[in-house]
Design the sequence.
């Protein structure tokens, strides 16, 4: 007997083709994803799949031929013993270790395959289990990778979903014998074809639907970004309500909190201890103790009397604000604006101070936070261990004044050393007598003063305070002393409070609030003090500006030069201009005596990133994912901290075997790189590497020729193509070039929408089917097909009216169930219909009439019997409708014994 | 015309057999399909009465074979264990006048044969019935005698579990077109029977002959002309095949079983005053026409298996749309 010609064997082969092969394919795909995510797995994707399929095939065949548990256990045990033997024969310990590790992996996969095979043979709905396991595996592999965009998830889940659908379609025919003859297996072919069509349709729909969805999301984000830009103009003051920052100084954006461009004296306050950023500031006193500086965010130079708010201004004379978006700067690239030196209008007591700033996720990453007069910035990576806390970092160089210091910007401290230095500073600044040397336009701009009774009274107060002093610094100190004044009981008159507007209606104009602050309540927070002092100093003819940023607090000397900034440190103060000395910080805010917030601990400072010897601004040409190698072309590079632009494009192989790949500030895998992507490729200074020495006098192109090949990459930062283009265009449109990321909320929202659509469809399905049936009646082209459609519609409607047909034939159904309940003469119709159906009869005209009469009587008779509401209600019953499509079944097949 | 005749036949039988119109129809169906029927039930259910009533409705009392009055001949044989085949088919008897053995025809030479309690006879006798039922002829010794084209056997048997029975072999069961069981009547009918017991008992004499020999032949010919839709034929094929591949059925339906099933369907349609077969007929007839041909693996299966197959097929037909004509 030819065993391979046996029916059962053929069936098994057929099932191998139909079930096992797709399962192996999907396992391969899933393993592929897992391999990309977990380096520990990477011992050969093909081998893994082979072991899995071995388990699957053997188990499937064994269990298909009805093997029992005991057989399978014996087979598994034999395999185990065999491999144990092989391992014990191996010569070296090293081999044993690796073989054991691999053995564990392979045996796990083999057992997975085995269990899958068993399930697929024995349990009809096993594909559900498989589907769940595969989905979970895929999701795990996705979650470990980086950018969770919708398309990414869909792309990865699509194979599993397709597999699930496929098995769903296939499962009903698997339990039966499958026709091997192609002609006879029309049912199978029909199913498969239908399935393919459905999948194609689903892909098409998804593509269409999601493309629109993604665009909408992008548009919305773009609109949000644009709004952020507009905020520069004006009144964001009211929009910040409910945000969690202490001084109301910050706006919440997509990228974290940003300090407001506009400052308004506001009465609403709240508190927060979110970590904003940390910084290493290399500024020390001559004795080596750290000298912290306030970190400036923006200068608000103009007072808008209509809106009663301080705003940024574009037409500032000699604007020394450093304008660059660090988030748009490619890694290791720097931007320097030397005009800052000139615009700072300072020459005396200036030095260049270096600082590193690490921004947490709470901080708006597009702004430069630095001590005043920053002129150069370079983006640097964050050490891997700290990436959870800090998303980005940059190094800045600032043209700082030695007379500036966070310790004495405001009032005397208890420290005698500091007091001494502060006195020296005052003495030094007393050299400035007046502002007649200053440019007129500059002076006028910064001493602009609004008119009005309130402002006049503030000016009068200022003049009264400074009647004795003539030098600018004395005037400043007089204003400071005014805030520090004590009453006859030795108690401070001015208080610090976060609830400044509590005693007044918060809606009164802020000039009125300032007036109240100065003359009545004497209580306020930083913006009150800063605003009031600004008005007073400007009234005295001292150029002053409103500064927002962060107060620097040196909490401990453990990590010298490291400072930590929390949201509650957001601050506002004034800067006063002294000719030749430049702008100096003066903080008039009174310390909060009532409530000293517990000092927050400093964190661990991040490790300094390794120094690169080569940074390439490159484009991926070809990527070999398995080998972890790629070809990249570049024409821009930074070689030992010097940027160069090459006059031709080089293409070099890149060895990325030990490389870290970063996309959107998060780690990803090498597989995420696609040819055509813009990359920043970084190679560190490393003892093991042959680093070419810079050759002076030799053109950079020649030096590049001498670079080692392949170039060993330590870090690759992926940019997207579009982004790169915009950068090259030099577009200043900061917010729009930002990669749009689809957040989980949006995915959830989209999923909810899809689910709602599905639910609505499911709920409406019975009524839709009824409509379809009625339409078929309407479009029936001859009496015969009309009779057919009427018959189907009637069966459906009677079913939905609660008269369910079980195993009886339609005629019996009519006789025993329908007609006793409804007056439709269904039996008469059925007899006629059966005659048409089985006697090859042509309907006569009176029969056609009878059909019409019956068709029109179905609805009214049902409504008459059970009422219109119940009828409608029945059509929402999806379960009932589903029962209609099922094969009618009786719970018990008791037949009368004949 | 024919409708009227059939109606009068069934009505006539119903005057004696109360509350069993379905079973009467089955019997008439077997008659019109030129087949034979086996009634199986407990003693006293009315099997013999039904058979006799039918016979008498188409023949005026006991008539001679090929009698001139247009009636049909009716013979009744009570099967017992000591019955011999010769008692059925007849035997050669020495004729003194002719000085030769002449064949003396037995009771099988008739039109309607009532084989009462067939399973009480020995297998030898049972098999003697085989030939005449299948081939409509009797072979005795060297000579073969054809039977009339109208030969209808109504056999009755007690349930096989009962004492003193020889179960009919599958081959012989297969030759019966149908096997039905009368069952008990419901309370109302039973009350009616008791209250009119005398009238019914005396009915033997009052039964009228409503059909003639020619009428029966004509109806049988008409039954052959009943139209069976190709889709129904496909359905029958599927049902027959289904019985062969069903896990719970040890012996499926034979092809002969399928052929007789179609014959029965046609006759059944005619009995129900139709000249075409419909899907309901499959359902009504599958049980009596097919069930006795099969051997089931267990009791449960014998109750459900066939019905499952038929229901699936009938459901497919019910959902099928009208097939356009060629």
Sequence:
């Amino acid at each position: 007997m030819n065993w391979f010609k046996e029916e059962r064997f053929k069936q098994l082969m057929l099932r191998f083709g139909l079930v096992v092969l797709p399962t192996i394919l999907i396992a391969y795909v899933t393993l592929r994803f897992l391999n990309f995510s977990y380096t520990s797995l990477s011992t050969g994707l093909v081998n893994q799949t082979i072991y899995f399929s071995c388990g699957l095939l053997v188990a499937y065949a064994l269990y298909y031929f009805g093997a029992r548990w005991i057989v399978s256990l014996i087979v598994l045990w034999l395999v185990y013993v065999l491999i144990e033997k092989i391992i014990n024969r191996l010569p070296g310990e090293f081999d044993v270790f690796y073989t054991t590790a691999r053995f564990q992996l392979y045996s796990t996969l083999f057992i997975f395959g085995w269990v899958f095979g068993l399930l697929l043979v024995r349990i009809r709905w096993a594909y559900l289990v498989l589907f769940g396991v595969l989905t979970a595996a895929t999701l795990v592999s996705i979650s470990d990778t980086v950018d969770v965009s919708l398309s990414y998830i869909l792309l990865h889940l699509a194979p599993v979903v397709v597999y699930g659908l496929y098995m769903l379609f296939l499962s009903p025919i698997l339990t039966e014998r499958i026709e091997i003859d192609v002609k006879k297996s029309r049912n199978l072919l029909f199913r498969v074809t239908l399935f393919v069509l459905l999948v194609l349709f689903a892909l098409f729909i998804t593509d269409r639907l999601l493309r629109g969805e993604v665009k909408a999301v992008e548009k919305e984000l773009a609109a949000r970004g644009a709004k952020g830009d507009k905020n520069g103009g004006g009144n964001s003051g009211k929009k910040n309500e409910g945000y969690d920052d202490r001084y109301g100084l910050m706006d919440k954006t997509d990228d974290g909190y940003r300090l407001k461009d506009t400052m308004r004296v506001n009465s609403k306050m709240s508190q927060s201890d979110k970590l904003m950023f940390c910084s290493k500031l290399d500024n020390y006193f001559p004795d080596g103790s750290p000298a912290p500086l306030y970190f400036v965010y923006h200068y608000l130079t103009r007072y808008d009397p209509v809106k009663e708010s301080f705003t940024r201004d574009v037409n500032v004379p000699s604007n020394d604000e450093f304008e660059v978006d660090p988030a748009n700067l490619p890694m290791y690239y720097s931007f320097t604006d030397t005009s800052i030196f000139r615009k700072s209008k300072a020459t005396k007591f200036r030095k260049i101070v270096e600082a590193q700033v690490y921004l947490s996720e709470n901080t708006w990453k597009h702004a430069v936070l630095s001590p005043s007069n920053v002129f150069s910035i370079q983006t640097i990576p964050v050490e891997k261990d700290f990436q959870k806390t800090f998303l980005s970092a940059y190094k800045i160089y600032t043209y700082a004044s030695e007379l500036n210091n966070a310790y004495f910007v405001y009032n005397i401290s208890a420290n005698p050393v500091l007091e001494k230095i502060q006195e020296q500073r005052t003495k030094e600044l007393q050299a400035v007598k007046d502002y007649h040397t200053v440019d007129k336009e500059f002076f006028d701009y910064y001493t602009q003063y609004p008119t009005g009774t309130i402002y006049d009274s503030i000016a009068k107060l200022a003049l009264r305070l400074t009647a004795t002093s003539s030098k600018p610094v004395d005037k400043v100190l007089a204003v400071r002393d005014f805030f520090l004044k004590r009453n006859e009981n030795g108690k401070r008159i001015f208080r610090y409070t976060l609830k400044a507007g509590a005693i007044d209606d918060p809606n009164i104009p802020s000039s009125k609030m300032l007036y109240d602050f100065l003359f009545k309540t004497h209580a306020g927070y930083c913006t009150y003090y800063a605003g009031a002092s600004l008005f007073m100093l400007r009234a005295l003819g001292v150029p002053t500006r409103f500064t927002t940023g962060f107060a620097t607090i040196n909490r401990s000397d453990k990590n010298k030069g490291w400072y930590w900034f929390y949201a509650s440190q957001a601050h506002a103060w004034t800067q006063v201009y002294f000719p030749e000395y430049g702008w100096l910080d003066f903080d008039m805010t009174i310390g909060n005596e009532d409530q000293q917030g517990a000092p927050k601990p400093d964190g661990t400072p991040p490790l300094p990133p390794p120094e690169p010897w080569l940074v390439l601004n490159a484009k991926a040409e070809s990527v070999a994912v398995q080998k972890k190698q790629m070809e990249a072309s570049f024409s821009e590079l930074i070689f030992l901290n010097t940027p160069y632009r090459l006059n031709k494009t080089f293409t070099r192989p890149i060895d990325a075997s030990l490389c870290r790949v970063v996309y959107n500030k998060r780690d990803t895998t090498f597989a995420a790189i696609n040819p055509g992507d813009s990359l920043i490729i970084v190679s560190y200074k490393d003892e093991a590497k042959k680093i070419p020495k810079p050759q002076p006098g030799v053109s950079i192109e020649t030096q590049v020729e001498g670079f080692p090949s392949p170039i060993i990459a330590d870090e690759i930062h992926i940019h997207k193509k579009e982004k790169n283009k915009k950068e090259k265009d030099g577009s200043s449109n900061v917010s729009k070039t930002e990669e749009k990321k689809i957040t989980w909320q949006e995915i959830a929202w989209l999923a909810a929408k899809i689910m709602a659509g599905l639910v609505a469809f499911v709920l409406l399905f019975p009524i839709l089917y009824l409509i379809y049936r009625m339409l078929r009646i309407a479009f029936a082209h001859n009496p015969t097909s009309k009779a057919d459609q009427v018959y189907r519609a009637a069966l459906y409607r009677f079913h939905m009216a609660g008269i369910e047909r079980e195993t009886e034939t339609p005629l019996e159904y009519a006789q025993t169930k329908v007609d006793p309940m409804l007056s439709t003469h269904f039996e008469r119709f059925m007899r006629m219909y059966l005659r048409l159906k089985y006697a090859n009869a042509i309907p006569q005209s009176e029969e056609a009439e009878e059909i019409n009469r019956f068709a029109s009587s179905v609805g009214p008779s049902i409504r008459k019997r059970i009422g219109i509401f119940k009828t409608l209600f029945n059509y929402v019953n999806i379960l009932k409708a589903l029962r209609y499509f099922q094969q009618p079944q009786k719970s018990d097949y008791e037949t009368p014994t004949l | 015309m024919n409708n009227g005749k059939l109606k009068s036949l069934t009505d006539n039988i119903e005057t004696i057999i109360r509350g069993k119109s379905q079973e009467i129809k089955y019997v008439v169906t077997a008659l019109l399909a030129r087949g034979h029927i086996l009634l199986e039930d407990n003693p006293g259910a009315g099997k013999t009465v039904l058979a006799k009533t039918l016979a008498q409705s188409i023949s005026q009392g006991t008539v001679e074979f090929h009698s001139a009055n247009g009636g049909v001949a009716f013979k009744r044989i009570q099967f017992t264990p000591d019955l011999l085949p010769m008692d059925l088919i007849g035997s050669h008897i020495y004729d003194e006048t002719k000085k030769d053995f002449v064949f003396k025809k037995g009771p099988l030479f008739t039109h309607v044969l009532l084989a009462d309690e067939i399973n009480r006879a020995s297998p030898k006798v049972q098999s003697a019935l085989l030939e005449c039922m299948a081939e409509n002829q009797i072979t005795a010794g060297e000579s073969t005698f054809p039977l009339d084209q109208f030969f209808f056997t109504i056999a009755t048997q007690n349930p096989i579990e009962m004492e003193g029975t020889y179960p009919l072999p599958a081959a012989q069961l297969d030759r019966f077109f149908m096997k039905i069981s009368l069952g008990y009547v419901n309370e109302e009918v039973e009350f009616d029977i008791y209250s009119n017991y005398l009238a019914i008992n005396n009915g033997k004499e009052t039964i009228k002959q409503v059909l003639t020999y020619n009428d029966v032949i004509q109806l049988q010919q008409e039954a052959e002309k009943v139209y069976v839709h190709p889709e129904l034929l496909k359905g029958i094929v599927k049902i027959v095949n289904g019985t062969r591949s069903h896990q719970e059925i040890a012996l499926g339906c034979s092809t002969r079983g399928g052929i007789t099933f179609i014959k029965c369907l046609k006759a059944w349609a005619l009995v129900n005053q139709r000249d075409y077969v419909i899907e309901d007929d499959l359902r009504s007839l599958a049980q009596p026409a097919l069930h006795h041909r099969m051997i089931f693996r267990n009791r449960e299966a014998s109750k459900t298996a066939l019905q499952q197959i038929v229901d699936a097929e009938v459901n497919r037909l019910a959902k099928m749309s009208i097939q356009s004509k060629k």
Remarks:
- The interface with chain A takes residues 179-181, 183, 227, 229, 231-232, 245, 274-280, 283, 287-288, 291, 303-304, 306-308, 311-312, 314-315, 318, 320-325 of chain B (CB under 8 Å).
